[in-house]
Amino acid sequence: MYDVAVVGAGLIGSACAKYLSAKGLRVALLGRSEAQGALGACYDEGRIYRIADPDKVWADLADLSIKEYEAIKDEAGESFYQENGFLAIGDPALEYIRQVEETMAQFGTEGKDYFVYSGKEALEEHFPFLRLPFDEHSWKGIWQPKKAGHLSPRALAKIQAVLAKRNGTDVISRNLEQAEPQDDHWILHLEGSQQVEAQKVVLAAGWMTKWLVPDKSLDITTQMSQAVLFEVTPEAATSLASMPVLILRGPKDPEEFWYILPPIKYPDGRWYLKMGYDGNMLNQRLESKEEALNWMKAKQARPELVSVAQQMAARYFPGQRRPYIDYLDKGVAVASGGNGWAAKSSDHIGWLASEMLSNSSEWATDPVSKALFPKELFRASFKASERSRL
Ligand SMILES: Cc1cc2nc3c(=O)[nH]c(=O)nc-3n(C[C@H](O)[C@H](O)[C@H](O)COP(=O)(O)OP(=O)(O)OC[C@H]3O[C@@H](n4cnc5c(N)ncnc54)[C@H](O)[C@@H]3O)c2cc1C
């Protein structure tokens, strides 16, 4: 019998399993590997990491995770991140720009830890690869040169699972099909008629999480997320090697943004510059599990074009746009709701979940967590019509 079964060997699940087993618990990490057809948001090479987030809670989660990167790299003997810096650009009137600047002011000193550029000319002079459109609009940029850049989510998930295994976690590469409650534990039915028993279960299955709890409608919206990979020559990759990762908020819709990562070498040996878009114009909601699965599979099956490849995974947004780290029921918890922003913060989200599952107080008791993360921040919420049923 396991103390905890972690469902989902993606970024949050593997981090959670690593920390749970480090505390001496018997842990099973469940879920297909990428080669077996895992469907997650982490099977890619490029994710932005940064502290400069408009939301202080996300900035704290990122900060505490980024502080662990070097230790994770050293323990694994393998790197997964590249410190290229981060640049946020937008109209100075945007809330986003004001909030990012405010966050950075809480984390450091202007002129040392972050730099502010006003106007198109100042930005283009400092970042020669940049050409800003919309001459009629003014621009402001906030540059975080350190503790920011890009990471490989694929490598990080793999490394965290390896470290979990090293700590004693049993990694079982099969998906959960059904969870059956017993008086004081759970029987988990996995693919291939295998089953495991555990006292507690934590659902960390990313965008699939809400469909693993059918009787309680978790407030999570699942949406398409699409990015384009532009192939560049190795020479162009070298000349753009110092380019920071970049988020640009357009002047028209404050909810919409574009992000660009410097060229990254992908497993096919080619260099790609990744450009993604977040907004409703291209990314429709995926309402049912079947619709989401079909969309993901159809897109994955598309043959890659020679120099421009589309890359996609579903994103999911929990009700309050912060992750859910909470018990749903006796012995069943959730650690999910990355919002499209949790790759960089997954280590600390996994750690908080491990504290919740292992402490008798059911939440982290260390002074930092107590000061920064009251449990209420990460409470799971449910669709309005379901609340009365709980
Ligand atoms: C296109 C795109 C761009 C993004 N860009 C960024 C970025 O720049 N910076 C950033 O910080 N974040 C970014 N994110 C978000 C980040 O990748 C996610 O927040 C993160 O991967 C979430 O981690 P997770 O563990 O919740 O889910 P995932 O990493 O998706 O892992 C979930 C795992 O659960 C498994 N699973 C599903 N169903 C089952 C089942 N029944 N049984 C067992 N296992 C199951 C899946 O196969 C998968 O392995 C981006 C996401 C997308 C889609």
From TrEMBL:
Domain of life from the UniProt record: Eukaryota
Keyword Secreted carried by entry: no
Essential cofactor(s): FAD
Keyword line: FAD, Flavoprotein, Oxidoreductase
Domain annotation FAD dependent oxidoreductase: ranges: 3-356
Protein family membership: Belongs to the MSOX/MTOX family.
Designated name of the protein: FAD dependent oxidoreductase domain-containing protein
Classification of source organism: Eukaryota, Sar, Alveolata, Dinophyceae, Suessiales
